[in-house]
Amino acid sequence: MSHEEFEELVSAYVDSQVTPEEEKAILEHIEMCARCRQLYEQEKVIKEKLHYFRETIHVPLDLDKKLIRSLEKAEEK
Amino acid sequence: MVNRKVRSYTKEDFKKVVLPYLGYLYRVAYCLARWNKQDTEDLVQDTIIKAYKSFHQLEDRGKCRAWLTSILYNTFVNKYRKEIPIIPLEEDIIYEEDPETEILRGVMDQEVSKALLELPEEYLHVIILSDIGDVSYKEIAEILGVPIGTVRSRLSRGRKILRAKLHRYAKERGYI
To answer: Kindly report the CA angle at B45 between A62 and B145, in degrees rounded to 5?
Structure first.
């Protein structure tokens, strides 16, 4: 596997969206290649950061009540 | 009378099945609406009303989340998507590689937010669906109407740009 192929696959690997064959090739490559190991680590950090960011989005507490009201209004129409 | 009975049962059923996903829908909508809270609430509301009207079409309730996401995304594209000024992508940024993983660990939420807003829409949307929505590649492909290979390559390139931008911001504020 080349660096380019690895780069293309690393996101999918971090997302657990690769085939077993691809996973095998990725693991073999990471074992040998320090540059791609580092890329893999960075990809995991990016994903973590996006998950932290998601947690900073505050959902309004009364959202469900508001939506139930709008559903009732829509029903009346 | 009979109709009303059927309908009121469906409404309770709908609430039970769909309301647990409200927080999830809000977060995905918030990102699609580019952090605009009013648009986010309106988008979620439109989505819920559409979902209610077509609730009978949801055959497999195990797929409720993907179904709702698809309604949300289509509603966004048809009604809420705005012309946004395109920030030219600095082509050189994607060739920048930085060996410092620690720099990335130090980036702040505001920097993630800024970097996301600067991403071209084609990359931003797959990242929102995948990383904010936890939607599978297959489902993203269905929602966007593109092949899975396209989802893969857009995510790969989108995250690469994000990584380069975050490295750059961290350096600009003198992390190292």
So the answer is: 135
Of B22, B31, B163, the CB nearest to A42: B163
Interatomic CA distance for residues B120 and B32, integer angstroms: 12
Q: Across the interface, which of B26, B109, B159 has its CB nearest the CB of A52? A: B109
For B8-38, give one letter per residue: b (16+ CB within 10 A) or e: eeebeebbeebeebbebbbbbbbbbbbeeee
Put simply, the answer to whether B101 touches A41 (Cβ < 8 Å) is yes
- Cβ of B44 within 8 Å of Cβ of A67? The answer is yes
Runs of H (alpha helix) within A1-77? 3-14, 20-32, 34-55, 63-76
A43 inside 8 A of chain B by CB: yes
Token pair in block for residue B143: 């929602």
Residue type, B40: T
For residue B29, what are its two tokens?
């909508």
Q: Residue B112 pLDDT > 80, yes or no?
A: yes
Question: ipTM of the predicted structure?
Answer: 0.90
pLDDT at site B172: 84
Residue A42, C-beta contacts closer than 8 angstroms, at least 6 positions apart: B101, B104, B163
Hey, are the CB atoms on A53 and B23 less than 8 Å from each other? no
How does the average pLDDT of chain B come out, rounded? 88
- Please name the residue ranges forming H helices in B1-100: 2-18, 22-32, 37-53, 64-75
